[in-house]
Design a protein that fits this description.
Strand content: under 5%
Distance between the termini: 43 Å
Number of helices: 5
Shape: rod-shaped
Radius of gyration: 25 Å
Low-confidence stretches: none
Oligomer: single chain
């Protein structure tokens, strides 16, 4: 009788241990999946900023493509990243508009000079974003936070 009890106890504790380990593995897998989705948005953001800096303009297609590729932001990040990505979209829209207007203006006009200054300001802003991007996303992409 005691032997039977010990065998059952051993079986029950083994089952509980295995179930607990499966739960831990599942949790780590979910965290890794979440990390991969967040990293994808970080990567797309970095690529988008790089495009804005290098070309000093953005096409409507590139603008819309970024919006689509980062659309999951509402489910993956806190409000600070959502607001930041929305600001990137807003400023890339300004960059897109100034680039379009610049191409339509005649050379040497005051309006064209103003557009040159606006594009320069936007380019500087995007360059600043390049150097601060990691710190903005660190909270969500630091492996120390994956448990």
């Amino acid at each position: 009788m005691l032997y039977s009890f010990l065998e059952n106890f051993k079986w029950i504790t083994s089952t509980i241990y295995i179930a607990n380990e499966q739960k831990n593995i599942t949790k780590r897998k979910l965290n890794l999946d979440l990390y991969e989705k967040r990293y994808k948005i970080y990567y797309e953001t970095k690529e988008f900023i790089h495009t804005c800096i290098i070309k000093n303009k953005i096409t409507t297609e590139e603008h819309e493509d970024f919006i689509v590729k980062t659309n999951e932001k509402y489910f993956l990040f806190g409000s600070e990243i959502i607001e930041y990505l929305n600001l990137l979209v807003k400023n890339s829209d300004i960059l897109e508009d100034t680039a379009h207007d610049f191409e339509e203006k005649e050379g040497g006009t005051e309006e064209r000079e103003k557009l040159v200054n606006e594009r320069g300001d936007m380019n500087k802003w995007f360059r600043d974003q390049w150097f601060t991007l990691e710190s903005k996303f660190l909270k969500y992409l630091d492996f120390k936070n994956l448990k």
